[in-house]
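Format notes (please read before filing issues)

Several people have asked whether sequences and structure tokens are stored in separate files. They are not. Every record keeps both together, in the order shown below: the sequence lines, then the token lines. Line labels are part of the format and must not be stripped during preprocessing.
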Amino acid sequence: MTHNSDDRVTVQLAVESIVFDAAAVSLRVGVQPDRQWSIGDARGKTGMAWERHGWVIETTLRSADSGGRSATDLIPIVVSAFERRIQPIVAKLALLRTDAELFHVIAIVANETPGIELSESFLTVLSAIGGTLQIDFITGD
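Then the structure lines:
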């Protein structure tokens, strides 16, 4: 049996804009971000600076906090929790598309390559908001 205590799944929505800073996005959608940055802020350890303002909301679940569940088991739980979180602001987020780029990211750290199944309702929410979908894997395979 594989030990999954290091598995982690994060689902996030990032809004990047040169027009709207994080405070403006928060005001428009009525939700405070989990992370944010401004134009010119350092971009991690890259030595580069952000060229756009950023506003991010995210939901993360770790295997260690979930009875040792694998990433495959965590994905639908995290996706559902994230969907419930953004459902009330979908229409407001969609209005940002004219002056912002929206990025949906599913980041998975797992001991084994997981299976991914996304519900129709989640895909409908992503479609209503617009933007791109990126799926990132880091596996120990």
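For reference, the curators noted about this record: The chain has a mean pLDDT of 92. The chain has four helices and five strands.
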